[in-house]
């Protein structure tokens, strides 16, 4: 690609964004320099290996990406609000639904969930950090490199435009010759390596770092779901890695894995993509289920109903999630026998999911429910998600799917699964764990605005899409003519999207307001909760627990409070061994980002030269003999005194 085509040239909207992005970058650099914050950023954030800070960085990135993906969503809704609109042309519509889908799933849902996992899981199991803190930082920085690379496609080189599923032959060089789909292949590969490492890290953490006495069946439900999610990550992500590697080879070096004429097969992509893609849906939904479980138990003030069946159903869902991928392409000629098998496995998933829904309902039954914001999100989740689930069973019927396939009905279905299932959960989790992360709570009143606007807006936006789908509107249509009976539904849906956006704005305002004005005196356990993360200060000190808790039951902290075992004696405090900060993860972020960028543009010499940096990073890291540092007894004592008062 020649240099003069580097910047996307696409009329006033794109030019405006290019200028805005440029100005934002310059002003951030200026502000950080002016406020002399470089050293602080480097020491406290860029090189940190603290799971809580890494979690917060994931969450911040996820919220920013939600904004980007949401703007994409609004642009699409604006374009289809009226028949024959000329707001976006077909090419731009294609690019926007592609970046919207990829960003929402991989750069919004994943980092928000992994971020909350990072903050909460080590605390819930009474550990000082994850098993491999430096690897954890590397995971974040590789995710970040991938996300940034993917996002610049909008202004540098051009966005991918073959859908978030990137089906071949459309995604091949022959039909999409620009660099857009190279971005897809390479940015997702880089981010995926980070995710895979996260999966390994959390499996080891949860298996090996639990506080003494915490058997597997005494783990909090969010830890259980994070554990199973990590296993699915390790099982499914390598498949995507291979698929993306084939895609990269096809596009960059002219191989023919997915080209029929040369002996390849586009169905290979479909199978590999969905072998990863369907489990991916459960990777994002299971931690969400875990969050609802914690929130509902806390605010119903009861222990979780049917803990064992809850665990069994997560394991069941994880197992079945690997056996259903063909339901994404019933119409592509697998035949009735194959379709029937996948139809049955798909419907079977409704059983463990139904078990969970009933467990949540029974947990609330006769509970003294406190209607906090976190709880409101959990309550709204149940009916909204059930609509997503039931329409899923409709789609699972292979014969019926010939009618629903690739229509707006499907688009409505998966938004009804993903928004209540993932986004509501993240909101519940943020309201719930915010005090633990930052030492102050989000405002409950502004939170109510956020809640009602978002939930009403969500239903207004997506409910009409079921009906417009049944009336024959297929997905990914950039425009339509008058008189099809779609205008009313789509117009209403577009208004709904504005209400939804107002809800998101209320969240942003809430974050801003709370940072400035919320009381800094929340105590360690503002919700009277049940699990160990509430047994330490808010925000949690960098070493998490002055003394590793000893666990004797499920809902350990609740029992500790009842039995009066929450205090700390002075003589129990010992020196604490902690890992040191590391520069190499951030260095790898830059190195992978640069190599990835050159590969996208197929500048192979430059890519090879800069790949040397990756090798240097690996070697330097192998010679890093840092053994960490010790927190002195005095420092621990002082920190603990601050929130506990005098130690006895
Ligand atoms: C926040 C409000 C949202 C709005 C207004 C919105 C709107 C839309 C629209 C209009 C489409 C394309 C329909 C078409 O095919 O023409 C779409 C597709 C899609 N959305 Fe959303 N969406 C939102 C949130 C989300 C979230 C939270 C997720 C995932 C967690 C998500 C995942 C997807 C995916 C995967 C696609 C398919 C893209 C493709 O066809 O390649 N969306 N969305
Ligand atoms: Cu699926």
Q: Tell me how many strands there are.
A: 2
Helix content: 55-70%
C-alpha termini separation: 70 Å
Number of helices: 20
Q: In the CATH classification, which architecture applies? A: Up-down Bundle
Strand content: under 5%
Overall mean pLDDT stands at 94
Derived from helix and strand composition plus strand pairing, the structural class reads mainly alpha
Any idea what the radius of gyration is?
A: 25 Å
Strand order, largest beta sheet:
1-2
Largest sheet: 2 strands, antiparallel
Using the alpha-carbon principal axes, give the shape.
Answer: globular
CATH hierarchy, class: Mainly Alpha
Named CATH topology: Cytochrome C Oxidase, Chain A
CATH superfamily: Cytochrome c oxidase-like, subunit I domain
What hetero molecules are in the model?
protoporphyrin IX containing FE, copper (II) ion
List segments where confidence is low: pLDDT < 50 over at least 5 consecutive residues: none
H-E string: HHHHHHHHHHHHHHHHHEHHEH
Question: Could you characterize the architecture of this molecule?
Answer:
- The protein has 648 residues and is mainly alpha-helical.
- It has a single domain, classed as Cytochrome C Oxidase, Chain A, CATH 1.20.210.10.
- It contains 20 helices and 2 strands.
- A two-stranded antiparallel ribbon has the order 1-2.
- Helix 6 (180-208) runs antiparallel to helix 18 (584-600), helix 7 runs antiparallel to helix 8 (266-300) and helix 15 runs antiparallel to helix 16 (487-517).
- It is globular.
- It starts with 10 loop residues before the first helix and ends with a helix.
- It binds protoporphyrin IX containing FE and copper (II) ion.
């Amino acid at each position: 690609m020649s240099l003069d085509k580097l910047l996307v040239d696409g009329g006033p909207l794109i030019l405006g964004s290019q200028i805005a992005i440029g100005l934002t970058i310059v002003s951030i650099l200026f502000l950080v320099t002016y406020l002399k914050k470089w050293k602080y950023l480097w020491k406290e954030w860029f090189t940190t290996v603290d799971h809580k800070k890494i979690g917060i960085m994931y969450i911040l990135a996820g919220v920013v990406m939600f904004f980007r993906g949401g703007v994409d969503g609004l642009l699409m809704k604006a374009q289809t609000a009226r028949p024959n609109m000329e707001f976006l042309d077909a090419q731009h519509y294609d690019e926007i639904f592609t970046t919207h889908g990829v960003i929402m799933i991989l750069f919004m849902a994943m980092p928000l969930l992994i971020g909350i996992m990072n903050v909460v899981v080590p605390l819930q199991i009474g550990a000082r950090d994850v098993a491999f803190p430096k690897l954890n930082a590397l995971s974040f920085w590789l995710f970040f490199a991938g996300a940034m690379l993917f996002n610049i496609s909008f202004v540098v080189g051009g966005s991918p435009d073959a859908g978030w599923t990137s089906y071949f032959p459309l995604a091949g060089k022959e039909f999409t010759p620009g660099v857009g789909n190279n971005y897809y292949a390479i940015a997702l590969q880089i981010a995926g390596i980070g995710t895979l490492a996260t999966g390994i890290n959390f499996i080891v953490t949860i298996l090996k770092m639990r506080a003494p006495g915490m058997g597997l069946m005494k783990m909090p439900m969010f830890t259980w779901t994070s554990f199973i999610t990590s296993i699915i990550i390790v099982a499914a992500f390598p498949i995507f890695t291979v698929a993306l590697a084939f895609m990269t080879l096809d596009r960059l070096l002219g191989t023919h894995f997915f080209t029929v004429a040369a002996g390849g097969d586009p169905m290979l992509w479909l199978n590999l993509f969905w072998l990863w893609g369907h489990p991916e849906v459960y990777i994002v939904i299971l931690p969400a289920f875990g969050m609802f479980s914690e929130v509902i138990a806390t605010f119903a003030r009861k222990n979780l109903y049917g803990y064992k069946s809850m665990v069994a159903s997560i394991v069941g869902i994880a197992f079945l999630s690997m056996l259903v991928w063909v339901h994404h392409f019933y119409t592509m000629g697998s035949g009735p026998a194959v379709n029937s098998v996948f139809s049955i496995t798909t419907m079977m998933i409704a059983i463990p999911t139904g078990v969970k829904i009933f467990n949540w309902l029974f947990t609330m039954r006769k509970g003294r429910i406190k209607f906090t914001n976190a709880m409101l999100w959990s309550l709204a989740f149940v009916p909204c998600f059930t609509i997503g689930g039931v329409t899923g069973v409709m789609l699972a019927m292979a014969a019926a799917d010939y009618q629903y396939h690739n229509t707006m009905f499907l688009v409505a279905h998966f938004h009804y699964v993903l928004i209540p299932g993932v986004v509501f959960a993240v909101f519940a989790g943020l309201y719930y764990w915010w005090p633990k992360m930052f030492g102050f709570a989000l405002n409950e009143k502004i939170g109510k605005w956020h809640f009602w606007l978002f939930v009403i807006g969500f239903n207004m936006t997506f409910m009409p899409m079921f009906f417009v789908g049944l009336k024959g509107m297929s997905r990914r249509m950039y425009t339509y003519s008058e008189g099809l009976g779609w205008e009313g539904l789509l117009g209403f849906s577009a208004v709904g999207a504005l209400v939804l956006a107002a809800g998101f704005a209320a969240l942003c305002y809430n974050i801003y307001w709370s940072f400035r004005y919320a009381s800094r005196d929340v105590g360690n356990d503002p919700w009277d909760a049940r699990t160990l993360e509430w047994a330490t200060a808010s925000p949690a000190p960098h070493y998490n627990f002055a003394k590793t808790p000893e666990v004797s039951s499920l809902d350990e902290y609740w029992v500790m409070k009842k039995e009066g075992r929450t205090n700390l004696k002075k003589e129990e405090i010992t020196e604490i061994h902690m890992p040191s900060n590391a520069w190499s993860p951030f260095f790898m972020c830059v190195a992978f980002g640069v190599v990835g960028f050159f590969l996208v543009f197929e500048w192979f010499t430059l890519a090879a030269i800069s790949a040397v940096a990756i090798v240097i990073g690996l070697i330097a890291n192998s010679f890093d003999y840092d053994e960490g540092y010790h927190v002195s007894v005095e420092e621990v004592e002082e920190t603990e005194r601050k929130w506990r008062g005098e130690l006895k």
